[in-house]
């Protein structure tokens, strides 16, 4: 706990404003450009210039080609001697006197001034040929400077050098060019709770990962990252770090810890050492950004939550770095997609929502990922970003929205979209598919089995992993297809049997024996979310045993995956969780089985023809898949990949 | 001249086939994958892993957050103690016994299991607060593993690591990962005519620039370039170089000289040392590619013309490198554009045409650039590539075509399109605009003044530089607008006066005094293309002087720019050229003036409002523009940038 925090809320963020993103960026860049002194340039060898930005226009030094060159394989001749030659008046030529053989690229010199293609030459012997057509002056001769004329522009100033530019520059006789120095970006991690990656981890500590992400993004956008060691939450220490970083760099980033205290330091320190231009922008996540200037240099305070940090970097640091080298801030590729579910947003902020996207039934369908600012994996797994403008309260399901892509359209085209129940085996499937079957990817959203069935109904996914027990018949899955998807032609791809049960700490300290123990006052449950098959199973068992959910401590504590349930038990914040054996095994926990269930995949029959689905089915049937699951434990196999008609 | 060439065409390219590009690529990759042995991997520090491709899936080692953490600033409490609290039954809490202050990110430990936001807390003093609402178990607490659960997948195998992945990997406790070794690509320049960049240049020599472009492209696509010194056209020397390169690399590229001889060596050598899979693909440029395998490694012979070399690299080497690291061969961004002129192609090849593209009157208009395989600058200047399929004989003007972009759509959006006459000053304008006016670019196509007027008529450009003398009135430009553009509301932006004349070698060795000397048998002219204002001027003067063009040697030798004319004179392949003084000055040549003319810009009145055009006009009015032209010499100024109504 932060000892400096006295709980007096009046001291917090007094100056927090709510500027619009565009306004904030142009205001900040405007003030910066009025204060920033001349940018540095340097000479760079052309062969090492790729990715650098020219400081001056580059003009050719020599012409290319450097001489009149044959554009064909053939013979070179003097066109003036060939006047009057045609089919009726062929002419015989003597080698060395009237012609010479030339290859493409050979020099054409006095007395020769034209080339006849070898196909139009009748060869009599090595020394003598004849031609029977007219020859124009300079025909089939590449003139000097056809490509580049000495003195002409090759590439302009402020141009980012590409491999094809290297070729043209060298051909134009240029061996070094003046380029803009890359801006050095000082990155200061702050926060008493930070530890460096690889250092010993303990409760209350956070691994500093954001500043390494910043370093990567700085490189990507053409800067040189210069990361400093973490500084603890001490006003004077942070002040010293900022002063040093401003002296040593062109741009300075202060990465806040996730506590409000450090953000506050940033604002106060920039105010003391320079000027705060903006504190607080109407974006979500990322609101508490601090945009400052010290000694004419941009100094930016970035919030600690990783997703906020990413959007603040993209929104503010990226344009600053690009502007430094006069590069345009390109928007990136976008696609239009159909929103699979209603998505509400606040009117107060421009919100960045991470989205999964796939092409299902020939339309792109987009589904929001976790919106928490702390969930880095929502960025890693995102296919695109949906920007919901300020003053827009959201979009209805079915709306056409525009996504800024985080992956190539080809990758999205090649993605199998699974929406439904979570099981550890989905990771196993994703890996085998991605690794062995070319360029196909599997993307899973975990919304529970019933959510998966709804996704099939709405055409949002290629298939839905489900495990739903019909209480009346005791049959898994098929009755649900008949009940909820009777208007669709839907089948089941057979998956696996898996063992569900109670996940408990190693050694079972609370001596839990079965479902009856859930109502004990000293036992706290970790549950799964409504709509998940595991929740359906638990509720079925509670009903069968006459237990009222209200009597269970933690019944309302819902997790979205088996691994999160196991993780909560492992950490001691719950005494018992419901989940699969494989998750307990992976976490090194004990397990009380409550039954086996069928984990299958619902799919529209039409989609079985999709070659990506065929790949998926082949993986289900593969020995590799079985071997991997046997290693995890808790699975049984009866013809996985088989198609079952309801 | 290549001494090995005896002119016996039967020896050449006996095995040249005409495979389709797609067929050739998949056949080659297929055979390669059946022969290539297991690819290497290595451990890489996460902080240095950006851009590398994972060899194995990466699973989290520790959970993130690592502990139950407060998601809000506020107080932590035991929810079990708060049962029954509401507005009518507020509860007073004592610090240290019932609650503690917490910041976002702080640890929530026994006995606390919920957080109340600071906004919902009534602070009585530092030691005592009260609340008046219900508290749910674990509310506002980020559970352990909310982001990453130990054991769960972070990134799959064969995933190219991005900055956001670095953040997630480090947060998941990963400090090093297994990545694919980047393929080492050996690059062998061959050709007796090659010199290294920076070495002394002489007639008959070519600077080896292609292999440096290859090195740049190899880096861009994730390989490690390994360029060898140039090898002259000697069978045994090239054989030795290939053998060494195959031993030392994963992929080998043999860059041919532009002569047919070296290409032939490549095929024969690969055949001797391994196997030629394909020789000859139905693409233009790039047909004579050789795709071979030696010791299970891809060995590719690339033709010497730079543009052919580029498309062969993109078509064959890129997929080989990407395949090595299991990366998909993304197509790149495309846009639809209107073709500005008829474009014919051969039925026998898939042709790659370099195109300029701009948004004029709200539609994208695409115009082909020089189609010669030797014109590197057509690649440097290209905005996109139009692929004309085999068996398609071309497209009519006005057809909607798809371009694969070479620049970002933003860059194309921000480009001013000029089509018309050439003058050295267009380079000057392009530079000032690009450098001083933000992100706006000027793109010029040189089709002559009359071509420019046609481009205005068809809406292909923003403006057209023209200098057209009306023979009857002696007035420049305005009469042409009235004659050819009477249906459009078109105006003239005033440009500059410039001096035209005869460009002659330094010292005037042939004692040329004026137009009368053009008919001398010992004088060879370098002319400009039909439709150019300079050609119109020359023809006007010839007519006035009663000279028949047929009597002029070289009258049909047409160049597209002033600089190419000057370059031809400089090289001695012509005795006199027509062009502007500035071009003669830049080449250090002598000059006989024949008259001053008006070089202005025709533009639709509507386009004057375009902010990009406003920037152009401001540059015309600037002192910087004048200063640059004064330095070139041969220009006069009378209100440049003024708008003249016809």
TrEMBL record, chains A, B:
Work out whether the entry's keyword set contains Cytoplasm: no
Pathway given in the UniProt record: Cofactor biosynthesis; molybdopterin biosynthesis
Per the record, the GO terms for biological process are: Mo-molybdopterin cofactor biosynthetic process
Q: Catalytic activity annotated for this protein?
A: adenylyl-molybdopterin + molybdate = Mo-molybdopterin + AMP + H(+)
Q: Which GO terms describe its molecular function?
A: metal ion binding; molybdopterin molybdotransferase activity
Its Enzyme Commission number?
Answer: 2.10.1.1
Return the Pfam families for the record: MoCF_biosynth, MoeA_C, MoeA_N, PBP_like
GO (cellular component) term, any one: cytosol
| Annotated protein name in UniProt | Molybdopterin molybdenumtransferase
Q: Which organism is it from?
A: Acetobacterium bakii
Its taxonomic path starts at: Bacteria, Bacillati, Bacillota, Clostridia, Eubacteriales
